[in-house]
Write a sequence for this structure.
């Protein structure tokens, strides 16, 4: 059986680096879209503003989620990990917005967002397993 605490910690470590790359690339692509593409659409500036808002919210939620997850996993406490699991849902919603509901999407964004979703879903699974093992009564057999 896989140790869920170790697997969760490894996924958080990987995601802490990938999220920095994801944030920089997504911000760069949004700046590119706002310069080149937004003036061509009638409501382009409204849509780009909405995308900036979603991206800023995603940065804040994902940063808090990673900090809480690392703090709870390293100290082996279940409360910060539970909050991290709860914050995974808005973070997944933000990535899904970037993947599916943007007006203009670049092909490379499909790859970035899909990889981010895979990491987040794996973290959700292993964090849930970690919480279950932490809440289980100790067995002295």
């Amino acid at each position: 059986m896989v140790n869920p605490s170790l697997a969760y910690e490894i996924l958080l470590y990987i995601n802490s680096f990938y999220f920095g790359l994801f944030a920089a690339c997504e911000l760069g692509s949004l700046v590119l879209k706002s310069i080149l593409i937004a003036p061509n659409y009638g409501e382009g500036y409204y849509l780009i503003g909405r995308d900036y808002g979603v991206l800023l919210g995603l940065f804040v939620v994902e940063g808090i989620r990673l900090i809480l997850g690392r703090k709870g996993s390293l100290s082996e406490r279940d409360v910060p990990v539970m909050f991290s699991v709860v914050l995974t849902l808005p973070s997944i919603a933000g990535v899904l917005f970037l993947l599916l509901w943007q007006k203009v999407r670049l092909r490379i964004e499909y790859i970035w967002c899909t990889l981010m979703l895979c990491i987040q879903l794996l973290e959700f699974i292993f964090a849930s397993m970690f919480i279950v093992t932490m809440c289980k009564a100790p067995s002295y057999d």
About this structure: The mean pLDDT is 87. The chain has one domain: 4-132.
